Amino acid sequence: MNFFRDNKNTILLICATIILIITMAVSGSGKPNAGIVSNTVGIVFKPLQKGMTYITNCFKYGADAEKFAAENTLLKEQLIVANQKAGDYDNLAAENQKLRAMLELSKNTTEYKLKAAGVIGYSTQNWSSAIKIDKGISDGIKKNDAVITESGLVGFVSEVGRNWANVTTILDSTVSVGAIVSRIDEHCMVQGDEALFDNGFCAIKYLTTDSAVSVGDIATTSGSGGVYPRGIIIGKINKITPNSNGLSLDAVIEPAVDVAQVQEVFVIID
Questions:
Q1: pTM of the prediction?
Q2: How many C-beta neighbours within 10 Å does residue 124 have?
Q3: How is residue 126 annotated by DSSP?
């Protein structure tokens, strides 16, 4: 008697489990729907089933739970580091390509001397466009020096201090640049334009109606005017329309340099 009294809870649990198993076996044998007894037993013993499953999983996986959690955290950290390195690689690759292009420009422009400078400020308002650079008079820079990048023309030095200078870009509505459409060797004028300013484009003026110019043609500096040396890329023509006067064509040019994004430039100081 003492055995049954002392182990009453254990015996009841065992009996309930046996009844559950028998009931589930009987209720699942060929009947599409549960009977009253089966349904009642299922409702009563559902929490018990869930508890037994939980205990079983604890015994099965409990020993490795902390290991899995630690490994999961480590993998997340490694993924973050890997993504960061991938981003750094892309940035370094782009910068490397840019520096190579700038070095190549230095090698190919032996006819004049270049001074590298960093951009430290931007100004775009009332159809004026300018950037500020970190080089000035002490570096040999003078007013009206041409400013370029490895991609093409940026503008000219409009104001200069001891260790800084302001550069008015070709987007500025007051700027005009003598140009040549390289493919057909036709002279024209590239100008900043108020209507095109917000899109970062310039206008081409003085193309005759019988001009052979076409979309995709490249315009370069003609060397006239004494500010910009000949042969510097200005940009690519992306639109051509007849002028209202019927005597000429108007064209839109997309500059080779995005002056709103440029970070390093060369000033032609000789």
A1: 0.61
A2: 17
A3: T
- Residue 207: phi and psi, rounded to 5, are -95, 130
Q: How far apart are CA 149 and CA 265, in angstroms?
A: 5
Please give the DSSP secondary-structure letter assigned to residue 153: E
The amino acid at 120: I
In 3D, which of 156, 161, 113, 120 has the Cα closest to residue 137? 161
Please state the separation of Cα 65 from the chain's center in Å.
40
The bridge status of strand 176-181 relative to strand 165-169 is unpaired
Taking the C-alpha atoms of residue 181 and residue 184, their distance in angstroms, rounded to an integer, is: 6
Instruction: Give the end-to-end CA distance of the chain in Å, rounded to a whole number.
Output: 114
CA distance 18 to 25: 11
- CB-based burial label for 252 (10 Å; 0-12, 13-18, 19+): buried
pLDDT tens-digit series, residues 107-144: 555 567 889 999 999 988 888 999 999 999 999 999 99
**Separation between Cα atoms, residue 87 and residue 70, nearest integer Å:** 26
| Residues β-bridged to residue 188 | 179
Both tokens of 197, joined, read 């300013």
